[in-house]
# Entry
Amino acid sequence: MFLDLLRRLRPEWLDGIPDDAAEQQNVAFSVVLDGLEVGRLRLDGEEWVFSYTDQFRKQKKIKPIVDFPSVQREYRSPDLWPFFLLRIPSLKQPAVQEFLREEKVDAPSAAILLRRFGKRSAANPFELIPAEA
# Structure
């Protein structure tokens, strides 16, 4: 139900970018805060998967990400969560257009754009670092 609402409220800057995992290449990211690997985001077949690392579960200083309150749970969704989706810039931005042109990307996906532009976000202090899938 929440994801249906999110699809209806999807910002226009994400037009042209698939919001689900179907037909996207497999990728993985480490979610890092102040040098601590908090969790891993990966594309597993046709689902996005987020889970916390054992290292994060053992520490007590940093609270869980609001969108992922249980540190024991593995979160799965065909749609990329807003926490990560907000890292994807508009396809209309000149830097994005230049990247698509130079890399000959005909069909930009969330996975491709996260890998290129998602490392940092003004919305939160976490870093998203490409990792082995």
Q: What stands out?
A: The chain has one domain: 2-131. Residues 94-102 form the longest helix (9 residues).
